[in-house]
Design a protein that fits this description.
The complex is a heterodimer of chains A (224) and B (303).
Chain A lengths: L2 H19 L1 H21 L3 H32 L3 H7 L4 H31 L10 H23 L5 H29 L5 H27 L2
Chain B lengths: L3 H23 L13 H27 L3 H22 L2 H9 L4 H21 L4 H32 L8 H22 L5 H22 L20 H45 L18
Helix pairs in contact in B: 1-9, 2-3, 2-5, 2-6, 2-8, 2-9, 3-5, 6-7, 6-9, 7-8
The chains are: A mainly alpha (224), B mainly alpha (303).
Chain lengths: 224, 303
């Protein structure tokens, strides 16, 4: 079995599961809707101010919401000892990791696509900089959150109170990614600075941590 | 070795007392900041000690991750050698050399620092075989967090009278140190919350992730204006030789102190694991049949 066939099969299975149950997506959507509303009440900004703070609000909201999906990634495989079956199967561990990370990437991207219009409506946003640059920022930023999140979800699976462990491990490591995403989004929204530096930094972050995750995941999966 | 411990304790106590005397009495008062500046004799040595301990933790974690299979051990060995060689070569490239000299750093000093990576790697691997690598990683992380906390506490105490603010949110050194502290606290939490045989592998992976993260943190705040004073050692700064002398004595005292604490923590953790192994053995074979003094070999890795 090749890497890609295993990845595709696992990815299809995850998407089908999510399509039928919609567990992760529904909870993420409602959670981030709550975040939008609560932030709106707590700050009540003018359009001019909101351009400066909304980059932070959007990404913090997505980060918190993504944790819900990430927590379910591996917990789902514990039922009926599916994870143990993965361990003894000859399928490469990296394929399993890639499938899970891609699945989470798709879920969080769907969430972002649905929530961004809401942010625009609630905060009266109008982009002053080059708007197309928001797309690479969103893609790279989401992958940065998701790739480490999937890895750390696999780590926190082995601990007591695993749902609490994931954010405790994920947030410190994600700080440079969050700083870059927020700074890039703010500079695009306000049109004051160039976002190139932060996009390159996000790309570096993605490359470094994707490599590290792929290299170390087998150790984590088979750690006994 | 056990007899060395009290001797080293006495030396450390003497050094710490001497360093305190030097810092408070002998070192001259700073022309601009007055006596407030004397906190650097605690702040800076703590920072250097903490970074050194985190560095050892990183090296030990890599060694531990690589020690599973022969192939991965060989790969890690060659990668580390390559890093050392490449680092030295890059430092002496004309462009990099000019860049380094313009920021006031000596290329030879930089090359020596880079060479520390393979040197530490092989030294740690040779001195701490098997599971002792993991004990070393745990010990250095715990003591490192303590020293890093000292840095983060003494920094604002100094900053309030000198800068007028407790904390400069966009500052590159402050933020990097804070994130480093956060990463290692999460490392200790992971070790606390996971008490299975897998903990060691998971913690080692997290330590490697943390080490990869630090340069990225540094660059992500690159664009902000940095408020922290430029390093006065090797940065071409103008420091009174007596101040430098006091600073180095302080550092030596702190290093001895850290080594002492690490040593006793290391021994404690080894004993703790031995006790656990005996308990596990007892529950396996029944209480009566364990002969006195039985212990599992600690160097045996969990399969």
């Amino acid at each position: 079995m090749s890497l890609w066939s295993v990845t595709l099969a696992t990815l299809k299975k995850d998407i089908r599961l999510e399509w039928r149950s919609k567990d992760a997506l529904n909870s993420m959507l409602f959670f981030s809707l709550l975040v939008v509303v609560i932030f709106m009440f707590s700050f009540d900004p003018l359009a001019e101010e909101s351009r400066h703070i909304v980059g932070g609000l959007v990404w913090v909201g997505f980060l918190f919401a993504a944790v819900m999906a990430l927590n379910q990634t591996w917990a789902r495989e514990l039922r009926n000892q599916v994870l143990d079956a993965y361990r003894v199967s000859p399928a490469p561990a990296t394929a399993l990791f890639l499938a899970k990370a891609l699945g989470n990437f798709i879920f969080v991207s769907v969430l972002e696509a649905l929530m961004t219009p809401l942010f625009v409506i609630f905060y009266n946003l109008r982009v002053l900089g080059p708007a197309w640059q928001l797309i690479p920022v969103a893609v790279l930023g989401t992958w940065a959150l998701v790739v480490n999140g999937t890895f750390f979800a696999a780590i926190s699976l082995r601990t007591r109170s695993r749902e609490i462990m994931l954010p405790l491990l994920l947030f410190p490591i994600s700080i440079p990614a969050v700083v870059s995403m927020v700074a890039a989004t703010t500079s695009i929204l306000t049109g004051e600075d160039s976002a190139h530096f932060y996009i390159v930094l996000l790309l570096t972050y993605d490359v470094v941590f994707t490599t590290a995750c792929l290299a170390l995941f087998e150790k984590i999966l088979h750690a006994e | 070795m056990k007899r060395l411990f009290p001797i080293l304790s006495a030396i450390t106590a003497a050094l710490l007392a001497y360093a305190l005397y030097q810092a408070l009495v002998v070192a001259p008062t700073d022309a601009q900041q007055g006596d407030v500046y004397r906190i650097i004799y605690y702040h800076v040595p703590s920072a250097w000690t903490a970074f050194l301990l985190f560095f050892i933790n990183f090296i030990a974690s890599i060694q531990y991750l690589a020690s599973g299979k022969d192939s991965s051990r060989r790969a890690a060995k060659w990668i580390v050698i390559a890093v050392g060689v490449l680092g030295v070569v890059v430092t002496f490239l004309p462009q990099v050399k000019a860049q380094l000299v313009s920021t006031g750093m000596r290329p030879s000093a930089m090359a020596t620092t880079v060479l520390c990576i393979p040197a530490f790697y092989f030294l740690v691997g040779w001195l701490f075989p098997g599971d002792r690598l993991d004990v070393l990683a745990l010990t250095t992380a715990e003591v490192g967090v303590v020293f890093c906390t000292i840095v983060l506490v003494t920094g604002p105490i100094w900053a309030k009278p000198v800068w007028g603010i407790w904390w400069a949110p966009g500052d590159i050194r402050l933020t990097s140190t804070l994130v480093l502290w956060l990463i290692y606290v999460s490392y200790l939490i992971l070790r606390r919350f996971s008490n299975s045989a897998q903990t060691q592998m998971l913690a080692a992976a997290l330590a490697v992730f943390g080490a990869l993260d630090v340069p990225l943190v540094y660059f992500s705040i690159w664009f902000f204006r940095t408020q922290h004073p430029q390093p006065v050692i090797g940065g071409g700064g103008s420091m009174d030789p007596r101040m430098l002398h006091t600073l180095l004595i302080s550092w030596m005292a702190f290093l001895c102190f850290a080594f002492l604490v690490c040593w006793s923590r290391f021994r404690l953790e080894l004993l703790h694991r031995e006790v656990e192994a005996v308990h596990a053995m007892k529950s396996l074979v029944g209480k009566d049949r364990v002969p006195v003094g039985t212990s599992l070999p600690l160097s045996r890795r969990p399969q």
